[in-house]
Amino acid sequence: MLLNYIWLGLFAIAFVVALIRLIFFQDVEIFPLMVKTMFDRADKAFALSLSLTGVLALWLGIMKIGERAGIVEMLAKAVAPLFSKIFPEIPKDHPVIGKILLNFSANILGLDNAGTPIGIKAMQDMQMLNPEMETASNSQIMFIVLNASGMTILPISIFAFRAKYGAINPTDVFIPLLIAKSFSLLAGFAFVAVKQKIAIWQWSMLKYIIGYFGVLA
Prior knowledge:
2 domains
């Protein structure tokens, strides 16, 4: 519902600005230009989304193969000790762990659009475990912050965007993005961990953080 008001507001503001330009600046071409630009941008947006379909289909297919082959379940068991520290409210071996892992995997690969439906489902499952239905649980807050702070290691979507628009080397932003996102992820995680009194200085937590930055190095 809120998005409807936002879109309506954007159209209303554009109309008012165009009307001001027409009345006070005698810009008679403003409305035809707005209509033309609107259709041009819609066409480009569709073409761009179509070009990303192949990339998304490839990596989503790989993720689905991993899920069917039991790799996701194996990874979920491997990260269970870490998740038990980060998400202490979620019972061990709960199905939501697999959904969180799939969402994180999609975000790590830069497939944000693919990870969104899985993330919504994970939030719904965590809400079922939430004793206070009107307030986000600590696990939900941590999950949202980790998603928002940027956990992308391989930004496939950005590479696809840059290749689509003719970048000579679509991957030359890889290192700067990796550094920026790694520090934003660490900052977001540390802030929430301190707020939720998660003992991040224990070796059981530090080894994962050190291992993460060791892999990046």
